[in-house]
Amino acid sequence: MKYVLVSGGVISGVGKGIIASSTGLLLKTMGLKVTMIKIDPYMNVDAGTMAPTEHGEVFVLDDGGETDLDLGNYERYLNITLTRDNNITTGKIYQHVIERERRGDYLGKTVQIVPHLTNALQDWIERVAKVPVDDTNEEPDICVIELGGTCGDIENAPFIEALRQLRYRIGKGNFLHIFVSYVPVINEEQKTKPTQQAIKEVQKLGLHPDLIACRCKKVLLQATTNKVAMFCQVEPEQVVAVHDVSSVYHVPMLLEQQGIKTSLSKILNLDELKLSVEQVLRGANTWTSWKSSTMQGDLQKNVTIALVGKYTSFEDSYISVIKALEHSAMACKRKLNLVMVNASHLEDYAKEDSPAEHDKAWEVLHTADGILVPVGFGTRGTEGMIAATKWARENKKPFLGVCLGMQIAVIEYARNVCKLEGASSVELDANTPHPVVIFMPEIDRTNLGGTMRLGIRPTHFQAGSEWSKLHALYLKSSSTDSSPSSLTHPSEELIVKERHRHRYEVNPSYISTLSSNGLHFVGKDDKGERMEILELKDHPWFVGVQFHPEYLSRVLEPSIPFLGFVASSAACLDTVMRDLESESRRSVDV
């Protein structure tokens, strides 16, 4: 097993996750089997209880693990399936060591950071690195580890020491360290002093970077590269410039152009890994597909999507949703124009308190090609979401509701079509006369961490739902094996598997009323009790899903609900359907 560590200094948020994902992708295009681990130095056991406006979205894995959003990047770039153990936090590793101490595993010894915690970290990394992450079910060749935060922070110290020991123990040629630094520009001059100081700091801790990735606004000057190399004790070819590009999907090409694959191969002795012809060809095909999908040049047509949300001030709150939209737009050969709409600005009170923002929000809604209502918690902005959903339904505007967005669609329909005055969710109004959305009975009401309905679960399309546009798309994608969702389609029904994260559900007591008035629940859980998908007939695209299809969207394999939504918004759904059908026929011929 070989390891690549990606860490950073100077400041956080310089793109370590994208660089780590891009490095993993490039290794995969060489034919290697790659896995990834994210280390987060915060005390939380996992990311599940963290506010999206502070830390970004919570990413959910197949096994229900609530993790850092960077694991979403890893899965999207490498098309792999990770587990909760691929995300290590300070809280998680301390909990692990303390539980062992309580069991008496340390035989009465004084338990310390070194060696007990650092040994536990190394054991964890080496154990997880061997777990298969793709459909080959084979042990990975290489593990990319991203260390969050900045080197030198007190919270990072145990992880740095553990990784230093790991590097020493496994020996030369099995460990490579990429250090990501930031090169600011002051008075038109690229400054290297922050990078020099950061490298000295990490060297004091016992790690010596093999490659230095310099994040910068514009292309790094050769003189700057030479200066970094000289003062950081590396060769110029070991300094990689990662300047801003028009799309993060172009970063792998940027790294490849600077010879990083050669450096990785040389330092890690990758030639000693005997790859089969099939592995090499599979890697080459992955690289060809990536470049053809992400390097489409200047697309002539736009598709404008209005995202009506609660956390619009911080885009990372919806990072997987945004990426799913991007993947679908690329598949539709459209340039995505995403406009964030603060749901509160659509509400009636905003007309008086902030009329300019109210008018602007509604103008965006009226001119958008499609309207998306995503996940959220709490009451703020929900009346604005309901208003946006009503407008989309009445004006035949393509609409997609995800999780809370589906529940919002149910509330809107109950109020305005079924005439159930005051209908709401018990989350939004505990005293509502018509609780069309309720708290799931099996959910723990006292503890927050890891207590929701989490992970991958099946959804069964119901008999008689063959008219459904979403049903048709899932069915066609299952024939091409191109969907990231796990699908089966026995003759009697279509079953899809998607990831979930919710505490509330549509109230079974109101299903009959809603259905008889035209709101069709075309997808239900395996017991037929929990509503998973709703859809309207006689509408270009009006779909709500209780699950989170964005978690399974991939760069080369877009999420089916998002693909259908974007294609409908771009008025090319029929074309997408035909393309899937053609691809299905080609796969049968093969």
TrEMBL record:
<feature type="domain" description="Glutamine amidotransferase">
    <location>
        <begin position="316"/>
        <end position="566"/>
    </location>
</feature>
<dbReference type="InterPro" id="IPR017926">
    <property type="entry name" value="GATASE"/>
</dbReference>
<feature type="domain" description="CTP synthase N-terminal">
    <location>
        <begin position="2"/>
        <end position="270"/>
    </location>
</feature>
<comment type="function">
    <text>Catalyzes the ATP-dependent amination of UTP to CTP with either L-glutamine or ammonia as the source of nitrogen.</text>
</comment>
<dbReference type="InterPro" id="IPR017456">
    <property type="entry name" value="CTP_synthase_N"/>
</dbReference>
<comment type="pathway">
    <text>Pyrimidine metabolism; CTP biosynthesis via de novo pathway; CTP from UDP: step 2/2.</text>
</comment>
<dbReference type="InterPro" id="IPR027417">
    <property type="entry name" value="P-loop_NTPase"/>
</dbReference>
<dbReference type="GO" id="GO:0003883">
    <property type="term" value="F:CTP synthase activity"/>
</dbReference>
<keyword id="KW-0665">Pyrimidine biosynthesis</keyword>
<keyword id="KW-0436">Ligase</keyword>
<keyword id="KW-0067">ATP-binding</keyword>
<dbReference type="GO" id="GO:0044210">
    <property type="term" value="P:'de novo' CTP biosynthetic process"/>
</dbReference>
<dbReference type="InterPro" id="IPR029062">
    <property type="entry name" value="Class_I_gatase-like"/>
</dbReference>
<dbReference type="InterPro" id="IPR004468">
    <property type="entry name" value="CTP_synthase"/>
</dbReference>
<keyword id="KW-0315">Glutamine amidotransferase</keyword>
<dbReference type="Pfam" id="PF00117">
    <property type="entry name" value="GATase"/>
</dbReference>
<dbReference type="GO" id="GO:0042802">
    <property type="term" value="F:identical protein binding"/>
</dbReference>
<dbReference type="InterPro" id="IPR033828">
    <property type="entry name" value="GATase1_CTP_Synthase"/>
</dbReference>
<dbReference type="GO" id="GO:0019856">
    <property type="term" value="P:pyrimidine nucleobase biosynthetic process"/>
</dbReference>
<dbReference type="GO" id="GO:0005737">
    <property type="term" value="C:cytoplasm"/>
</dbReference>
<dbReference type="Pfam" id="PF06418">
    <property type="entry name" value="CTP_synth_N"/>
</dbReference>
<dbReference type="GO" id="GO:0097268">
    <property type="term" value="C:cytoophidium"/>
</dbReference>
<protein>
    <recommendedName>
        <fullName>CTP synthase</fullName>
        <ecNumber>6.3.4.2</ecNumber>
    </recommendedName>
</protein>
<dbReference type="GO" id="GO:0005524">
    <property type="term" value="F:ATP binding"/>
</dbReference>
<comment type="similarity">
    <text>Belongs to the CTP synthase family.</text>
</comment>
<keyword id="KW-0547">Nucleotide-binding</keyword>
